[in-house]
Amino acid sequence: MTNKHLKLMQLSLLDEVPELNKIFFLDVFAESYYDTSKKRMRLNTINGQQVPCDIKVSCPSRLLTRYPEGTIFKLDARLVRKGEGKNPYFIAINRNNMQRALEFFDYNLKVQNGFDYVMPKKHKSVIKSAKAV
Fold first, then answer.
1. Strand partners for 28
2. Which of 43, 66, 81, 114 places its Cα 20 to 30 Å from the Cα of 31?
3. Could you read off the pLDDT of 11-50 as tens digits, one per residue?
4. pTM of the entire structure?
5. Strand 89-93 to strand 56-58: parallel, antiparallel, or no bridges (unpaired)?
6. Per-residue DSSP letters for 103-126?
7. Closest residue by Cα to residue 100 from 46, 44, 29, 48
8. CA nearest 93: which of 115, 114, 63, 66?
9. What's the rounded Cα separation, in Å, for the pair 25 and 19?
10. What is residue 63's predicted lDDT score, i.e. its pLDDT?
11. In whole angstroms, what is the distance from residue 29 CA to residue 35 CA?
12. Cα 103 → chain centroid
C-alpha cells in the first residue's frame, strides 16, 4: 500500500470513527518539521493517538522557531474541514501558551543536543538525600 493510499485511509477515519467527529481535541501531540515548499517550520500530528498521524496543525511559525526541528509539542486543537476534496487540518488553540511536551522530554533533549546525547545520571548523594526526606 502506498503512502498516499495510507494517508487517505487515515483521513477517511475522521468520518468513520465517532470520537473523531468532534470539533475540539485536547492533548494532541505534534512534531515540528521544516517545510521546504513553504520555507518555514510546521507541525504534523504524530502516530499513536486518537487522531490519525500526519494531519497538519496550523500554528504561528514564530512559536515553532524557538525550538529545533523534531521537537514534539502538546496542544489543544480545533478540527477544520474546508469541504470536499480538501484535507482536514487542526488549528492550535491557546497558541501563546503552547510548549514542548513534557512526556517527550528525553526525546526533545536528544533533538536539541544530537541523538548521541546521553542523559546525565543523578549523583548518589542526591539520591540518598532524596530518600532521607
1. 75
2. 81
3. 444 444 445 566 888 888 999 999 999 899 999 998 888 8
4. 0.66
5. parallel
6. GGHHHHHHHHH-TT--PPPPPHHH
7. 29
8. 63
9. 10
10. 85
11. 18
12. 11
